[in-house]
TrEMBL record:
Entry annotated with the keyword Lyase: no
PANTHER family: 1,4-DIHYDROXY-2-NAPHTHOYL-COA THIOESTERASE 1, BLR5584 PROTEIN
Lineage of producing organism: Bacteria, Bacillati, Chloroflexota, Ktedonobacteria, Ktedonobacterales
Species of provenance: Ktedonosporobacter rubrisoli
Chain coiled-coil ranges: none
Recorded GO CC terms: cytosol
Residue ranges annotated for the Thioesterase domain, each copy included: 78-154
GO molecular function: 1,4-dihydroxy-2-naphthoyl-CoA thioesterase activity
Keyword tags: Hydrolase
Name this polypeptide is given: PaaI family thioesterase
Amino acid sequence: MTHLPENQRTRTITWQDPLPVLQQGRELSGLQYMQAVKSGQLPPPPMMELMGVWISEVNEERIVFAVEPAEYHYNPLGVVHGGLAATLLDSAMGCAVHVALPANVSYTTLELKVNLVRALTRSTGVVYGEGKVLHLGGRIATAEGRVFDANGKLYAHGTTTCLIMRP
């Protein structure tokens, strides 16, 4: 019998097969799809389950994701890995573009720029990643985002360029 060290922790992740959801999602506008994930009508993507992220708000103007930094987000320096803020920004900015797209039109991130301005820790509390579209063209979209806490304190900000893929 194997014994775990006294300070060992475990975490179990459960998710649904994303491929059937992808098929359903193609029939919805980006806004309808994100609203369905937020309401629980559609399951979230596995990445959201893995990171502990959820949709806090979604409308035509912006989308806001949320996450509560935890020990399992930590890097070897004793703070939350910058990848959590980068993931939150990539999700928020990309999904802001998605929200602006009609059914059967998708996107992919071409470029992501992230500025980390303050460390996150498990004592930070819930942080929010907000994304807003800056430009929506026929093939290219740009968006901006920021990560902030409940008091509005900024932890990261960024921009993205997305390729719009039409059938």
